[in-house]
Amino acid sequence: MLLTNRVEQTAWFAMRVTYQRELAVKEMLTERSIASFIPMRYELRTVKQRKKRELVPAIHNLIFVYAKQSDVQQVKAEISYFQYMMDRCTGRKIVIPEEQMRRFMAVAGTYNENLIYFKPGETNLAKGTRVRVIGGEFEGQEGTFVKLKGVRDRRVVIAVEGVVAVAMATIHPDLIEAIPDTPQPTVGKSIRRKIVI
Predict the structure, then answer these.
(1) Mean pLDDT of the region 77-88
(2) Rounded-to-integer distance, Cα 39 and Cα 62, Å
(3) Does residue 146 fall inside a structural domain?
(4) Is the pLDDT of residue 161 over 60?
(5) Neighbours of 28 (CB within 10 A)
(6) Selection from 59, 68, 70, 58 nearest residue 16 by Cα
(7) Which of 85, 112, 139, 149 is buried deepest, with most CB atoms within 10 A?
(8) β-strand partners of 61
(9) Range of the domain at 142
(10) What sign results for the dihedral spanned by CA atoms 159, 164, 169, 170?
(11) What is the CATH number of the domain that holds 15?
């Protein structure tokens, strides 16, 4: 019998908690030196008849965890309300690719008040154009330029497939360039195209 040593990889797992306890779980994970991310935003709340600007979770009950699966399993064994999010089509745990998570955190981590969050299925990104932001607060980010329901202008949307999508604040068209579908030779020509609105 041949035994192989498999090194367990760290990965981003999409996790659910119940009863809006995501901040308590994040604190527990931090105590165990496990990295996590919760999309947050500022909200005006009335506390004792005074308005106060508070940083709150943008999507309740959602937390992203960056760890080895065995570490996540240990935490799950101790916290009954901490569960994996599952892909409805495949029935597998949702694991987010590093690059996709990096882009999502770069946008959601700004706490910009103009960000709009969507659940899976609330946006149809297939109708949009793949773009790169070339200036401003979100420079370097890539997403899909699409018209959204209830929003006047088109927005750049970054999605974590099967979990959440975030639409950036309105970005001037001069700060966006289309990403070609297939790489083309750039002999003497620029591959940069402007988006027509």
Answers:
(1) 94
(2) 8
(3) yes
(4) yes
(5) 16
(6) 59
(7) 85
(8) none
(9) 98-197
(10) positive
(11) 3.30.70.940
Does pTM top 0.85 for this prediction? Answer: no
Give the pLDDT score at 154: 84
Provide the domain count of the chain. 2
- Judge whether 4 lies within some domain: no
DSSP string of 140-194, one letter each residue: T-EEEEEE-TT-SSEEEEEEETTTEEEEPSP--GGGEEEPPSS----SSS----P
Q: How many residues does the chain have?
A: 197
Domain membership flag for residue 1: no
Dihedral angle over CA of 132, 135, 136, 138, nearest 10: 20
Nearest to 160 by CA among 112, 86, 104, 78: 104
Question: Dihedrals φ, ψ of 161, to 5°?
Answer: -55, 130
Residue 125 pLDDT greater than 60, yes or no: yes
